[in-house]
Structures are given as C-alpha cells and as structure tokens.
Amino acid sequence: MKTLHVLVLSALATSPALAEETRQLGAHEHGVGQLDIAFDGQQVAMEFHAPGADIVGFEYAPESAEDRAAVDEAVAMLARPMDLFVLPEAAGCSVAKATAGLESEEEGHEDEHGHDEHEHDDHEHDDHADEATHTEFHAEYLLACADTSAIANITFAYFETFPNALEVEVQVISDAGATSFEVERDAPTLDLRGLF
Amino acid sequence: MILRLAFASLAARALTVGMTILAIALSVALFLGVEKVRTGAKASFADTISGTDLIVGARSGSVQLLLYSVFRIGNATNNMTWDSYKDLAAQPEVDWIVPISLGDSHRQFRVMGTTTAFFERYKYRSGQPLAVSDGAVMDDLFDAVIGADVAATLGYEIGAPIVVAHGLASFTEHKDQPFRVSGILEKTGTPVDRTVIVSLEAIEAIHVDWRNGAQIPGQSTPADVIRQMQLEPQAITAALIGTQSRLQVFSLQRAINEYPQEPLLAILPGVALQELWQIVGIAETALIGVSGMVVVTALIGMMATIFSSLNERRREMAIFRAMGARPRVVLGLLVLEAVLMAIIGAALGLALLYAGLFIGQPLIDSAFGLWLPIEPPSMRELWVLLGVVAAGAIVSMVPAYRAYRMSLADGMMVRN
Q1: What pTM, to 2 d.p., does this model score?
Q2: Which residues of A sit within 8 Å Cβ distance of B?
Q3: ipTM value > 0.85
C-alpha cells in the first residue's frame, strides 16, 4: 500500500508534522457513488462523491489532452446539480453554490473549492507508477428552495449522464432525522415522501 | 338453520375439533407474536436516541459503535483519547458535545460516566428529554443518578450508597470510593433505565488508587483528597454531538472520519440503525416465513381432519341428501364448519397473544430492555386474522368438494 500523504487541508488538522506520519485510506467501490443531502429550512445542502471510474472511466491522473478534456467536461457537468439530480418544479429550487473537482486518494484531500489542475500535474508521474491509485470526483452544492417540502422525489438523471455509474448511496437528514437509501440505475428515483 | 347445524356438528366432535382449533390458535399467536416482537424491537430501537446528529467513537463499524455506545450491546469499541475529544469540542460546527465513558458496573447495571449536559442533550422518543422523578442530577463528585429500573430492581432511594465494581460482574469493587444516589430518573423505556450515571471525573476518581486494572495494595486515597485532585480523563468511549446547523452534519462527519491524528468514526444514528435493520432483515424474513409456514401447517392439519371426518360422516351426508339437501348445501356446511374453526382459532390465537404479552412484557423488558406495547390489534394484524379465516375456507374447499361429488348412493351403501 502506498503511503497516504495527507495534505493538511482538513479543518481538523492541528499539527502538520503529526499528520504526515498518518497512513489511512478511504473506502472506494467502483460503480457506487455517494450523495449526502441535508434539508434545513429553505436550504438544501448536497455533497456528492463518485469514483473516477464511474465518471470518466479511468482513475489514473489525466495524461493526454483527451483525458484532461474528459475530466474538465466531467467537472463542468458535476457543477450543474439540477441536471444530475432533478428536483420537482414545485419546490422552486435554484443553485446558490456549486463546486466540483477531482481528488486522488494518493493526495488525500484536494481543496474542495476548486479544481486545481496544477496540483494534479505535480503528482502525475507518481500516480502513474502506482497501480493502486484511485481518484474520486467530489462536488458540493447548496440549493435555495421556495418550498423544500415539495421535494417528494429526486430523479437521478446522473445515471444517464454517466453510463458507468450503477448505484448511489444516499444519506438524508431532515426534520424527521437521518436515514439512508440506495438508488440504482434500474430505478433512478429517490422517494422522499415521509421525510417532511 | 345451517349455522346451528354446523355448530352442533362441531360440538359433536369436540375433541378433534378442539385440537384443530388449538393448533390454529397457537400458529396464529406465534405469527402475530413474531410480528409484534419485530415491530416492537424496531420502534424501541428507533425511539432510543433522537436529537443527536453524530455519535463519535474509535474507528470500528457504525453498527458496533451505535450498539455499544447507546444500547450497551455487543463488543466494546476501542476508546478515543480525551485530546481528540477536546479537539472536536473546539470545532466551530459543534454546538454541543457530550462524552460517554463505559466500562464499570454496579451489580448487573452499567455505570456510565458523562457530564451533566447529558441530561439536557440526550433525547428519546422524538425529542423527549430525560426527567428526574426524584432528587436532582449529580452535583458532587461522588453523586450518582440512577435509571428507573436500577432503582426499582435494587430498591434504592435518594441517599443510598453505591459501590461500583471494576469492569463487568467483577469481584474487584471500588469499595473505598462509595457513591451516593442523588437522583432517580423517570422511566424512559431506553437503556438509560438500566444505567447508573456518574460524572466523568468520578470514573477517574474511583481509579485513582488503581494501576493496570488492580488496586495498589495498601493505598487508599481519602475522598477529600480526591476531591482536590485534577481529574481529567485520559480516554472516553464515545461522544454525542449536536451541530450548529443540519447543513454541516455531513462535512463534520467527513472531517471526523478523516481526522488524521486518531482513527475516529462519526455515525448518523438513524443511518446506522437502518444498516442494522438491513442485516437483521434477512433473519426477520426467515422468522416470518417460518411462522407463516406454521400457520399453513395448522390449516393443512385442519384439512386432514375434515378429510378423515368425511369417512365417519358418510352416512350423515347421505341422510342430509336423502332429506332433500342439495349437494351445494353439503359443501356449504363443510366450508362453514371450517370457517367457524378458523374464526375460533384466530380469536383464541389473539387471546393467547395478549395473555402472552401480558405475562411476558415485564420479563422481556428486564431481560432484553425491549418494551413491547400492549395495544389493540393493528389493521395489519386484523388483515392477517382475516387471511387465516379466508385460507381456512379455501383449504376446506378440497374435502368439501369431495363430499359434494360423493353420490347419494355411495353414502347409503353399507360398507364392510
């Protein structure tokens, strides 16, 4: 296993010297993305993670111009949440904030607020040498909705956009508490009735 | 007329009919009982914790952490360090944080070290807070607040002394530092009922003269000296966290799960419970399947008794026919008899279930901490009963059809 170089960008890290000693890896399952949704008043916060294999079909650091274009295109698509996770019209939601980016397991955390091409370039050769490298796309959204209680379901157009994706594990927090769902390609609709 | 006939016919064969009814009643009681325990367990688990956004502990599994920290079931998770706890408490997203320290016991009950914030923050049954029925929450270092079941089982009142044992069911007791009961909590139907709650400092205090799990011989620090000491715990079992805003829960969870200094795990209680049900779900389905098969077996038993009774009642049926009853009436009589048996069986089964609940409720509560509510039967249960009666009618069609087809002449013939 390759050493995980945790870049100390985590909000919790207090001592950079200690952090460099740490070796830990996250879970990674191809075909399975993760979406966390929090409802609070008129705001809906979403956090999305998906393996690079699901989104662009490869998990090495982009090498060719083609790869790079694919990643850029994917990031651009992930930055449009309303096209991926379709909410009912009645809810009147609009995107207040959306960021997307690619992070590689090897690098630990990428700055969540942007897609920094340079950072990846630095590690390119490293990545290539190591077969165990996994990359993950990461996106964060904040939506403002006129009526969150009208969000009775979410349609995952995501599966149409990214044909390699098979499943999304969804965690939801609302007034009714926390719960989890699995949304699969065969039935790409998340039923949220009973949460409001 | 035909109803009276059916009743009289059943009464005439009281013993076999009684056995058949008993079999149906037992199977119905079993089926409904399994259903009751299943839904009761789910409700009881779901009601145990509410209002807590995250539970944090050492990295293990979400189900294990939830079961151990909240339900005190299963294997102990590793401890997390006090430094990490302080670090977490300082995070801007954290609105409140309550530490939990487990590991010692009093008689058969767990002792939990925590802060007084626990009484404000811990909520059960959709947001209901804990209430003190007698006395007050702990004030002094050696004060203990006990759950309703602890007080009831051990007969403790305010001021009663408590000696905490090291570990679980251990012979080594912390005799030199006895506690005093300062408050008794109201019954909640959660594991808190079976818990002795002391302050986090108190957990440290009782271990002052202990090294490596044993008391240092001849050493006993007086309580007054301990009170003067700086008692800061080295480790805790878990912590309950409430966030400033619900929108921050997931990012805080992620940050904790990726906390570089210590392998920690943050779980959403509701999601962890759901994971647990996914695991238990397979066994649940099997249990329902088996109890459903028992009902089917009882109904097939009924069919067998009706079949065998047909031979005895060959002459009887023939006489009905000779008296002018149509074959349809004979069929109707047999089906009616079966339906009556099924109805009596289902009703008796329901009665058995409630009798069992009435007797079993306190036993199950004390043994498993599972409170099964005694409620009028739900719509679902009524449908099950109706289904049993309908299945009884359908099953009886088979022998009834045979009686229907049997010719008058056949019944009149004398057989050797």
Answers
A1: 0.75
A2: 6, 8, 10-15, 18-19, 22, 24, 26, 36, 38-40, 43, 45, 47, 108-109, 142, 171, 173-174, 177-180
A3: no
